[in-house]
Automatic annotation (TrEMBL):
It is found in: Cell membrane. Its main location: membrane. The keyword Transmembrane helix applies. This is GRP family sugar transporter.
Length: 295
């Protein structure tokens, strides 16, 4: 493994680590965030495809790649909704934990991962670490019924959103193309969901349309960060770079940056004790990710 491969593998650390914080900082409603982000992602994907002379795949490869993007955008809308409830610094570790859990369960039951009892026991231990780590990141000293109710709602939303993130990862496995070739149709699927969602809300609230709000287009900038992360992860996961396992581990470091920047730059304050427990929780999630992809 060379230095170039490692640097590319750390692309998601910056992209996915800063994306939720930048999106939250720019502000607006979830519909503004998803519309602008997906426009930015499509612009990035189009430029990448043109530079590399890539055309759209055909047939079911195109369909599944678009469905992959549809899954991500649907999940991301739900994640943005959770940001309004508990903030990105609490929501991101939870959604990362759900994604790790989903990927692990999918790998065991659909792909035959973790063969043998020892592998399953080690994998089960990693899943316990993920759950414990996620719980630690949302732990608070000041417990009220209202806060507990809001947190429960956010967790339920993120659990539902995991279905979309699972589709984002699983759908391309049904194609015969590589991740870089699926990048552009994924971006198309993302924007389709954002447009439909924006039109629906526009009819529902005729005084507010995401298409006419300036803040929507400010989020094109945040979309560049997501697209950069997605592309560098796809490159990092190639066999001649870091490979899927190491690439996945490196990408999960983004949860640390997303959580800490949310606390430092968005005013999502934690007490000293809460901060200590949050950091321990993040370490547990990263350790579990390392375990699950090396079994």
């Amino acid at each position: 493994m060379n230095a170039t491969a490692i640097l590319i593998g750390l692309g998601p650390l910056l992209g996915w680590g800063l994306y939720p914080t930048i999106a939250s900082k720019i502000g607006g409603r979830p519909v503004n965030q998803i519309l602008g982000s997906t426009i930015g992602t499509l612009i990035f994907a189009l430029i990448f495809a043109l530079i590399n002379g890539m055309s759209l795949p055909g047939g079911m490869d195109l369909v599944f790649s678009i469905l992959s993007g549809v899954g991500w955008a649907t999940a991301q809308i739900i994640t943005f909704q959770s940001f309004t409830l508990v903030g990105s610094s609490r929501a991101m570790p939870i959604t990362t934990a759900f994604q790790l859990l989903g990927a692990s369960v999918w790998g065991v039951f659909a792909l035959g991962n973790w063969p043998g009892m020892s592998a399953k026991l080690l994998g089960g231990f990693a899943l316990i670490l993920i759950i414990l780590g996620a719980w630690m990141t949302v732990w608070t000293e000041e417990k009220t019924q209202e806060k507990a109710s809001i947190l429960k709602k956010a967790i339920l939303l993120l659990a539902v959103g995991e279905i979309g993130y699972w589709a984002y990862s699983a759908a391309p496995q049904a194609t015969s193309i590589n991740g870089m070739q699926a990048f552009l149709p994924q971006a198309i699927g993302m924007l389709l969901v954002a447009v439909v969602y924006s039109v629906f809300l526009g009819f529902k609230d005729k005084e507010k349309s995401a298409f006419t709000e300036v803040v929507s287009y400010k989020h094109i900038f945040s979309g560049f960060f997501f697209a950069f992360a997605a592309l560098t992860y796809l490159i990092s996961a190639q066999p001649d770079m870091n490979g899927l396992a190491t690439g996945f581990i490196l990408s999960q470091t983004s949860v640390v940056l997303a959580t800490l920047t949310g606390i430092w730059f968005l005013g999502q304050k934690k007490t000293k004790k809460e901060m200590t427990i949050t950091i321990i929780g993040l370490v547990l999630i990263l350790a579990a990710a390392a375990i699950t992809v090396t079994i």
